[in-house]
Design brief:
Blueprint (H helix, E strand, L loop, with lengths): L6 E3 L2 H9 L4 E3 L11 E7 L8 H11 E12 L4 H6 L17 H10 L2 E9 L9 H14 L2 E8 L4
Parallel strand pairs: 1-2, 3-4
Antiparallel strand pairs: 4-6, 5-6
Length: 161
């Protein structure tokens, strides 16, 4: 699609696996990596909930984005109706892997505080019922009405006027 993509992972084995698939992936700590260019797009897919320093990463992303650059971030939505219905048995309470949980409002505040402007968000996913069951299909449709337990946010680098 015309993108020149590159990635970074803290795990050498994960980075090596990605390189074996033909991807340009380095191993290292993103917050300590200095790039000689700015990015048009940065993605964090189901990542921020695992990070020990999520605000530091968001600030670095804001620095690394080109003017008008975009961040796409997905994470579990702790304020979803499905999280509440499942209570302590919610599918994303994976401790110690998940160490941070966000509400849409909390994530928006974090993004704004780090120099990023939230532009659009959607929710999806329910975790209810067996995969491909009628219950799952209905619950997943309801999840797209703003109450899903996964949150996807598009944010842009804040431009000072």
């Amino acid at each position: 699609r015309g993108w020149k993509a590159q990635g970074i992972d803290i795990s050498e084995s994960c980075a090596a696996h990605a390189r074996e698939q033909g991807l340009e992936v380095s191993c290292g700590d993103y917050c300590e990596t200095i790039y000689d260019h700015k990015f048009e797009l940065i993605t964090l897919w189901a990542t921020i909930e695992h990070l020990s320093r999520p605000l530091e990463v968001l600030k670095k992303i804001a620095e690394d984005l080109a003017p008008g650059g975009m961040l796409l971030i997905s994470t579990c939505n702790v304020s979803s109706v499905f999280a509440a219905l499942k209570a302590g048995e919610w599918r994303f309470y994976n401790f110690p892997e998940h160490i941070h949980f966000f509400t849409p409002q909390g994530l928006f505040r974090s993004l704004k505080g780090c120099g990023l402007t939230p532009k659009k968000s959607i929710t999806y996913g329910s975790g209810f019922g067996a995969p491909h069951s009628v219950i799952r299909k209905i619950a997943d449709r309801i999840a797209k009405l703003g109450c899903g337990d996964m949150l996807l946010v598009r944010a842009e680098k804040t431009v000072n006027k």
